[in-house]
Specification:
It is built from six helices and nine strands, in the order ααββββαββαββαβα. By secondary structure, it is an alpha+beta fold. The chain has a domain of 85 residues: 2-Layer Sandwich (wza like fold), CATH 3.30.1950.
């Protein structure tokens, strides 16, 4: 059997067993789902779970699903599932058991994600689900960066209205992960918006009025002094 015939035979086997040249490869190579840094039960109430069925990008399971305060996640067709007591492998096995017949490939990748709020002077301010192993640079990139050049230097990290660190620029430059910087789900990153009035904006607006008032007062006191001098003569 020559090489060309062998290649055609292998390609035919791919089509038979996988439905595409990548089908057999997808069945033989499991999608990675383990991360040694995750705790045994990494799905926390109030956070979220990211699910991917790559390379089936059109699957209804692809996306981020919120975990409610009781530890349940609501999935299409399956309804509410208690996920907070599951390990990553247990949740993957649940997906395989309940959704494998609805997907083109038997790959399920899941990842816990946490909530972060990016408020103020960001290009796309809002609420995001992110991997806790992402860096602060990654998080700001999600929001499209800051609206002003000095937005990074003026950014604040807040938790329960308290500033958590005064070294955000250093954390940003070094690419330190949210986990290593002590981030907790629900924390806020805030930077001033150009449309928000600050102290010096108010001073700049008030200064002309103060200058005018001072000039009037100087003219009045000068006039009063001249009147007094004329009467003294």
């Amino acid at each position: 059997m020559n090489n060309k015939t062998l290649q055609k035979l292998i390609f035919l086997l791919f089509l038979i067993f996988g439905g595409s040249p990548f089908g057999l490869l997808a069945q033989e190579t499991p999608f990675p789902n383990t991360d040694p840094d995750w705790p045994t039960h990494p799905f926390t109430p109030g956070d979220g779970v990211f699910i991917s069925t790559f390379p089936d990008t059109s699957s209804f399971l692809n996306g981020t699903f919120a975990i409610d305060d009781r530890g349940y996640v609501e999935l299409p067709m399956a309804g509410k599932v208690k996920i907070s007591t599951m390990t990553i492998d247990e949740f993957v096995n649940f997906l395989k058991k309940n959704f494998e017949s609805y997907t083109k490939y038997p790959n399920f990748y899941v990842k816990p994600v946490v909530r972060v709020s990016l408020l103020g002077g960001f290009v796309r301010p809002g609420l995001y689900y992110v991997d806790v192993h992402s860096s602060l640079w990654d998080v700001i990139h999600l929001a499209g960066g800051t609206l002003t050049e000095d937005g990074i230097y003026e950014m604040e990290w807040q938790r329960n209205k308290k500033n958590m660190s005064s070294h955000l620029v250093e954390i940003y430059e070094k690419g330190i992960s949210l986990k290593n910087m002590g981030f907790k789900s629900g924390d806020i990153f805030w930077t001033p918006s150009p449309t928000r009035r600050r102290f010096w904006d108010t001073v700049r607006d008030v200064m002309p009025i103060l200058t005018f008032a001072t000039s009037i007062w100087a003219m009045y006191t000068t006039y009063q002094r001249d009147v007094i001098l004329l009467r003294a003569r």
